[in-house]
Amino acid sequence: MASGISFLSDLALLSRKPLTPQEMLDHAESLKFLADMADRCARRLTELARISGKT
């Protein structure tokens, strides 16, 4: 996740340099990967919260 946050920070600089179509596709795939990871982490935290709430 830490490298994902760093990647997102780097995306803020995109408007300052031109990207090739392949670079844009690569960034899009990276964002999809990070979104999937964030979703899985959020679901797991929700499950843990439910388990912790039952004690």
Would you mind describing this structure in some detail?
The chain has two helices and no strands. It is elongated, with a radius of gyration of 16 Å. The longest helix is centred in the C-terminal third of the chain and has 33 residues, at 21-53. The chain has 55 residues and is mainly α.
Identify the quaternary structure here.
Answer: single chain
Structural class, from helix and strand content? mainly alpha
Give the radius of gyration. Answer: 16 Å
Count of alpha/pi helices? 2
String of helices and strands: HH
In short:
The chain has about 55 residues and is an all-alpha fold. The protein is built from two helices and no strands.
Task: Describe the SSE topology.
Elements: H1 2-11, H2 21-53
Protein traits:
55 residues; 78% helix
